[in-house]
Design goal:
This protein is mainly alpha-helical. The protein contains 9 helices and 7 strands, in the order ααααααββααβββββα. The longest helix has 25 residues. The strands form 3 sheets. The protein has a 3-stranded antiparallel sheet, with no helix packed on it. A two-stranded antiparallel sheet has the order 1-2. Strand 5 and strand 6 form a beta hairpin. The two termini are 30 Å apart. It is globular, with a radius of gyration of 18 Å.
Length: 269
């Protein structure tokens, strides 16, 4: 029955997102599969936390979209996400959910909070930070960068990342309580979400500034994440050829998960 409920709820949410063009068809199908597993192999703790990330991130992607339109042309990830982007953000959590289903252990839950806090913090930092009136600075040397440049950080974006991690930590605690899991320390869960999310988000920026595969537009000269810009094919500028934005997302999620496991174990949530 849980698997059927998961499939129905996931189909409803993913179908609505597809209708609103927040997901491509492949992204919609991937989201249905993912949501089914999150609820069928898990419970509301897993499914609800995933939903919290997805809904808030989707709403933020539409907030002042007109101001973000030009910068989105440089991003590999946009508001219309495909299967690869869906899996890059939620695939790690799905594996943790299955692992907990097979071998239950609190570490899987800590790791899951870290993963979801990371992808939420990173997405919130991008969506809100792109609206900053001050240009971003390099996470490596604090030099001023062009808005939308990979590896750039701003005060507004960092604040949004912290807020996203807090929301995931608190939300996970609430969903755990509703699911009947004996968790008492809301503050501990909040700290795991906050610190795990920030660690993962800054790791994402660092990887983006160092080894992510970036391209250069032959027309405007900007460094971008996409293969086409200004109507022309881009050329490779730096980074490892296989280190795409999706791979960076996965690696930063692993870092956020490891931080969350360590912190959760110390706090004995």
């Amino acid at each position: 029955m849980d698997w059927m409920i998961g499939a129905a709820c996931a189909s409803l949410v993913a179908g609505a997102a597809y209708a609103k063009k927040s997901l491509t068809l492949s992204g919609c199908l991937a989201a249905i599969l993912m949501g089914t597993i999150y609820y069928g192999a898990g419970n509301l703790f897993w499914f609800g936390t995933l939903l919290l990330f997805f809904i808030t991130s989707t709403l933020l992607s539409r907030f002042r979209k007109d101001r973000k339109r030009e910068m989105e042309k440089s991003y590999a990830k946009t508001g219309n996400r495909d299967a690869g982007q869906v899996m890059a953000n939620g695939g790690m959590g799905m594996l943790l959910c299955l692992a907990n289903w097979l071998i239950p252990h609190p570490a899987w839950m800590y790791a899951f909070i870290g993963v979801m806090a990371t992808v939420t913090s990173d997405t919130w930092a991008t969506e809100i930070g792109s609206l900053s009136r001050k240009p971003p600075r390099s996470v490596l040397n604090l030099k001023v960068l062009t808005p939308g440049a990979s590896g750039g950080v701003s005060f507004l974006g960092s604040f949004a990342a912290a807020l996203g991690g807090i929301v995931i930590g608190l939300g996970a605690f609430v969903f755990a309580q509703i699911s009947g899991l004996e968790q008492d320390s809301w503050l501990g869960w909040t700290l795991v979400g906050l610190i795990g999310g920030l660690a993962g988000a800054f790791a994402d920026s660092y990887l983006g500034a160092t080894i992510q595969n970036m391209y250069r537009c032959k027309v405007c000269g900007r460094e971008v994440e996409v293969h086409d810009h200004c109507g022309q094919p881009t050329v490779s500028a730096r980074g490892w050829s296989w280190m795409s934005n999706d791979v960076v997302n996965v690696l930063s999620s692993v870092i956020g998960a490891c931080i969350a496991i360590g912190l959760g174990s110390i706090l004995a949530l």
